[in-house]
């Protein structure tokens, strides 16, 4: 009966589908802000999830003894009084039959009267909680973490808000035939024995709650999934390996791109240098023909093997030469390898 009333309350209040009805009166005190619940999909054919309470809070599964200081704000939500009769036929009727716990033989409908009175909403200050958990880590040795992690269908959640009653409340149910005399008729002496049921439960009873899922990484860090787009769970070994390989791929790609950019700039520089040399008259560029300039020599005659030209060898291909200059030196060598034409003249034009 209590489950039927809380389901009806959640359906009427709404809250965008985030609100979950408390399944039983005996577990109502376990759905308090910052309490932990386990969310698990029932099976392939039933898209709805089942929420199971736990005796732990968020602090219990974190490393360290520091308390969570995120405050909880409270305010009045509404005054709830509901009187409705529900047909026993159809999907909702089947749920009602299982929840109300009374004899419905020979009946086609059930009248339910729920008097919750003023209910209050108690919710965690999300911004404060997010700041606190940025440096906290999950304790993987905790029994709840080990058990939840072993199931791929289970997701650990934190209760972020709860809706509670403020006074003693009553629930009444009557099974009968739909008609004018049936609606909200709860007089025991006028009904067959066992076809009416009424319960009273105390104030400050939680009737609904909402949760944020937790996504827990392999290093113990975790995220609070504050939107419906993000999903909770545990990071798997294969997921972490794939993410590492993806990051390495991006690093190598960026490094190769920088190397190719450097080679391209070097090649453009040489192309501009040679084009500038060839575009000018020969008499102005052939410095080696002028008096007092350095002299080209064949390095093979001095037992020096050929190698890449210091000027044009900076491109994509190492252009080798046997010529050079003994009057110039670079990098500790007492000579400079340079092609006879045009690198020798371009080099000395730059040096000049």
UniProtKB/TrEMBL annotation:
Entry annotated with the keyword Membrane: yes
Annotated Gene Ontology cellular component terms: cytoplasm; endomembrane system
Domain Gasdermin pore forming, first and last residues per copy: 1-235
Keyword Membrane carried by entry: yes
Cellular compartment(s): Endomembrane system
Any single biological process term in GO: programmed cell death
Name of the protein in question: PJVK protein
Organism: Crocuta crocuta
């Amino acid at each position: 009966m209590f489950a039927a009333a809380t389901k009806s309350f959640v359906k009427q209040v709404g809250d965008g589908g985030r609100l979950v009805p408390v399944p039983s009166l005996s577990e109502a005190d376990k759905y308090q802000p910052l309490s932990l619940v386990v969310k698990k999909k029932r099976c392939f054919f039933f898209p709805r999830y089942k929420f199971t309470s736990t005796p732990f809070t968020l602090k219990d599964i974190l490393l360290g003894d520091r308390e969570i200081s995120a405050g909880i704000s409270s305010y009045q939500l509404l005054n709830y009084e509901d009187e409705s009769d529900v047909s026993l036929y159809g999907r909702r009727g089947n749920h009602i039959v299982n929840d109300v716990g009374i004899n419905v033989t020979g009946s086609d409908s059930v009248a339910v009267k729920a008097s919750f009175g003023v209910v209050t909403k108690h919710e965690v200050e999300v911004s404060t909680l997010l700041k606190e958990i940025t440096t906290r880590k999950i304790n993987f040795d905790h029994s709840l973490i080990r058990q939840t992690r072993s199931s791929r269908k289970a997701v650990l959640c934190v209760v972020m808000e709860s809706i509670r009653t403020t006074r003693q409340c009553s629930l009444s149910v009557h099974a009968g035939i739909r008609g004018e005399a049936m609606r909200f008729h709860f007089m025991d002496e006028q009904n067959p024995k066992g076809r009416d049921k009424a319960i009273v439960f105390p104030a400050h009873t939680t009737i609904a709650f909402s949760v944020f899922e937790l996504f827990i990484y392999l290093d113990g860090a975790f995220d609070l999934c504050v939107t419906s787009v993000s999903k909770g769970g545990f990071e798997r070994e294969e997921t972490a390996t794939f993410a590492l390989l993806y990051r390495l791929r991006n690093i190598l790609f960026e490094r190769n791109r920088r190397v190719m950019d450097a080679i391209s700039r070097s090649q453009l520089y040489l192309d501009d240098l040679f084009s500038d040399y060839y575009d000018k008259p020969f008499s102005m560029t052939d410095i080696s023909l002028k008096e007092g300039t350095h002299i080209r020599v064949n390095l093979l005659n001095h037992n020096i093997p050929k190698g890449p030209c210091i000027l044009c060898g900076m491109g994509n291909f190492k252009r080798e030469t046997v010529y050079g200059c003994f009057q110039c030196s670079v990098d500790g060598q007492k000579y400079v390898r340079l092609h006879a034409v045009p690198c020798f003249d371009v080099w000395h034009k730059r040096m000049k």
